[in-house]
Write a sequence for this structure.
């Protein structure tokens, strides 16, 4: 398993982590993604650990804490193979958890409560990487960041990251941390895929400039790049068919089919699956340190692990880039004409 430094830090992580949104007795929303119980979760963790994947990602809102609880119980069953310091855990807070007035956001009140509750559900006394799951525009950033810095100093969390922030949210937060000498975000967890490349314009440049390592969520475009969707074929099974893409980004079908056609061609050339090609493409993008892979079962996990140990060549990368590239929104299309003074990531 390849490891990469996570942002401008000394923290090394494997290039794949296992997302656990499918874990737990799921509610209606997350139930469309999967309903992995403790026994199946334990088998998936064992399989991951056997392949050197020791990084597991969750969030407090995944099935209202059930994902964290199932992950914690499953980790206990793998304890004979891996001690806690051999396993990396990340979780998140900000979205609503509970009905009380302070049950949402990134306030000091909510974050202290959220960290303590996550620690209990996970069955651990520290979290390796703690994310703000979204930007809270109602709480001053200095309140959020001073709280996180205090939690780092207490040893309850070791590193902090942000997720689903816009570029200015990221920069405002980093500037405040730098000004105050507080712990700063070292990771950005965001959506990025061959059918969702907006990240490259708004977020990749500051990630490069400020030293943020990117953890990619939904790398297969909300289930669209698994190989089950092809031009002229009815969608009969999988996450899309079950409604698991609800709430996700809109992807025009003609555009999706063009990308899948290119993926099919590259998969045929390389002898890999469509999903493996899509994941491998991401692993070669600037700023990407880790991909959060999801799996409903052991078979899907095994397939995703096949994205490692090889690399697409430049011809195949260009083929995929050309099929998936779309004109960016303003001002990014305008900035593309001024590379002499405003250079962009090579992917532009």
């Amino acid at each position: 398993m390849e490891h990469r430094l996570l942002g401008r830090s000394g923290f090394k992580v494997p290039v794949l982590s296992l997302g656990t949104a499918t874990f737990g007795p799921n509610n209606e929303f997350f139930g469309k993604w999967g309903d992995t119980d403790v026994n199946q979760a334990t088998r998936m963790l064992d399989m991951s650990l056997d392949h050197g994947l020791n990084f597991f990602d969750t969030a407090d809102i995944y099935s209202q804490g059930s994902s964290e609880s199932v992950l914690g119980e499953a980790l206990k069953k793998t304890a004979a193979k891996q001690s806690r310091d051999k396993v990396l855990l990340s979780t998140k807070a900000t979205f609503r958890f509970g009905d009380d007035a302070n049950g949402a956001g990134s306030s000091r009140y909510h974050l202290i409560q959220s960290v303590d509750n996550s620690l209990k559900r996970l069955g651990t006394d520290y979290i390796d990487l703690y994310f703000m799951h979204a930007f809270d525009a109602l709480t001053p950033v200095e309140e959020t960041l001073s709280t996180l810095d205090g939690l780092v100093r207490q040893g309850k969390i070791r590193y902090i990251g942000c997720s689903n922030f816009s570029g200015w949210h990221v920069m405002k937060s980093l500037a405040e941390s730098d000004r105050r000498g507080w712990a700063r975000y070292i990771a950005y967890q965001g959506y990025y895929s061959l059918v969702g490349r907006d990240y490259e314009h708004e977020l990749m440049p500051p990630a490069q400039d400020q030293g943020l390592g990117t953890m990619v969520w939904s790398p297969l475009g909300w289930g669209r790049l698994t190989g089950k969707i092809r031009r002229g074929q009815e969608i009969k099974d999988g996450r899309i068919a079950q409604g698991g893409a609800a709430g996700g980004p809109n992807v025009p079908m003609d555009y999706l089919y063009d990308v899948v056609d290119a993926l099919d061609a590259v998969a045929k050339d390389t002898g890999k699956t469509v999903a493996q090609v899509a994941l491998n493409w991401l692993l070669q993008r600037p700023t990407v340190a880790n991909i959060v892979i999801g799996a409903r079962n052991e078979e899907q996990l095994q397939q995703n692990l096949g994205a490692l140990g090889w690399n697409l060549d430049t011809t195949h990368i260009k083929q995929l880039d050309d099929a998936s590239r779309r004109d960016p929104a303003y001002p990014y299309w305008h900035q593309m004409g001024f590379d002499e003074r405003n250079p962009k990531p090579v992917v532009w």
Observations:
- The first helix runs from residue 28 to 31.
